[in-house]
Request: fold
Amino acid sequence: MISLTKATHPLKGDVFVPGDKSISHRSIMFGALAEGTTEVTGFLNSADCLSTIDCFRKLGVLIDHTIRPSNGVPTITIHGRGLHNFKIPTDTLYTGNSGTTTRLMSGILAAQPFDSIITGDSSIEKRPMKRIITPLNQMGADVSSVMGNDCAPLRIRGGKNLTGITYRNPVASAQVKSCILLAGLYAEGDSVVYEPALSRNHTETMLSAFGADIHNEVSRNGSAVAILHPGIPLHGIKINVPGDISSAAYFIAAALIVPGSELLIRNVGINPTRSGILTVLKQMGADITLLNVNDSSEPSADILVKHSSLHCNENGKFEIGGKDIPTMIDELPIVAAIAAANNFDTIIKDASELKVKESNRIDSVVENLKAMGCDIEATEDGMIIHGGNPLHGADINSHNDHRLAMSFAIAALSAEGTTRILDDNCVGISYPSFFKDLQALL
Reply:
């Protein structure tokens, strides 16, 4: 448990957030699938990403993990085994709290010549896996839920010949899309995944950099398709991982909430499929400027954010929904905290995916903001935050959800009295040094 109080002075200075979690996961996976060596600089040294390393080591992949003494930057070297040379795991593959590891690895394991079982912690064992079981089995795999509840543990029987499919995913989910595409690397024929909106595209961008024949197409109405042509081996590359925008979001919020603040958050990934929070906050009047923009395949920039008086639309409300949701799904809890500190109504809709994250983030956000004095109500697919009520300190139940713990740590900066974050160690899932970095600004 950690205690925080209202900020007593403006937050000033430079902030460096750790590497992007999505890119870090995929760098290990794709490096393992590639021929040759992949070197990753700026890897996220968090519990989730270390679970991915552990799983691939159990498959026989040699992975060197060091911290460069000159600058303290985590560097990973993956000695790839190619698509077809993994060893049979002698134990269950344990993914900890990582849904990304669980779902993406299932696509890889479905194409192997051996049987495997994959599972995670109690949270993972509650998260829906039918969304990957169904398309994988349509491809010819044999994937089943050990407990028969469409959740992990998953039993994956190997030795199956996979066939590419055209799959229409009812929700925009990068994990489902990526699972199918990774299985598609082994399949006969193309794998095509349609989505109602383009979800984060790190898999497509990075697989292309490794040499795969893969691309996205986005229609005028915002729907998207990813197309993979198999049969091309992957080759090791060098990867520089930018800072995670999901981690940067907490400091963006802190600067907006605490009067007089000005923070420069260095080298943050601004992939358009991930940076919806910047778009939405700018629409609300946030003073956010991108500096030193690097327009690579995974673009990055320094983000300068200054305290701002946010505003709603002419109807007295601000709505967040539709195509913006997939680009900021992980940031919605901190957006709710920002909304609570402002004097207008904010409506978050089309976000039912929040129910099946590390916790039910709709119910958890509503529960904790109510405890702090916010007038907020849950809806079927989101929440309505009636801003303007002064917040006060409270005991925050993080439900062992890292994004909740960090979001309410920031909300505490505008609340009178003391806020205590219960189970604060869960931030190690994505940002182990979060509280240390926050305290350095206070």
Notes: The domain at 21-230 is CATH 3.65.10.10 (UDP-n-acetylglucosamine1-carboxyvinyl-transferase; Chain). The first strand starts at residue 2 and ends at 5.
